[in-house]
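Thread: quick sanity check before group meeting

JM: Hey all, I'm pulling together slides for Thursday and realized we never actually wrote out the predicted structure for the chain we discussed last week. Dropping the sequence here so it's in one place. If anyone has concerns about the input, flag it before I start.
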Amino acid sequence: MGLELGFSHVVLKVRDLDTMLEFYTNTLQFDVVDRGPLNLPNRGDLPPLDTEIVFLSQDPNNHHQLAMLPIRDDDAPGPVDHMAFRAGNFTAVRDLARTLQGQDVAIRPVSHGNTWSCYFKDPEGNGVEVYADTPFHVTQPQVRPVDLFLDDDELMAWTEETFSDQNGFQPKKEYEAGRAEELSNRP
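JM (edit): ok, ran it. Output follows.
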């Protein structure tokens, strides 16, 4: 079947490593799995790099989902709009939204029809999305504000009512089966 890629990791250039590690390990519950000196004297057209690198993960099958380099020295936003992490279930998204609100972190709760998402900024302004999949597929882009604190039945009913008239709305399993068939027919 051709090239198959899956999400591996994001490397962030950070200003305050301790603050960022505090947020990602305590609030988002990542573990520091490795850290150490990084010395890259020859980087082609880039200047040499001599710093520490810290690796974080929640996935025992993925050494790191996130790495941090304490080399950011400006106040400009980074080149990445946001990084997204899939939660195991919607309860985890709802619980994280409560935790973030308790820490006075502004959240932007939305549904894309195929996800229930909580968008927010980390302490250095990097965009983060934590989401859970809905059981539906909807042609994208779709962005609707959602109340993440609805109970599960209300949230499901709201999602179906809000997106059922959108192009491509169907059960996610049907969409995935169709995509798998398309991919298996590639040369």
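AS: nice. The radius of gyration is 19 Å. The first helix runs from residue 17 to 27.
JM: adding both to the slides.
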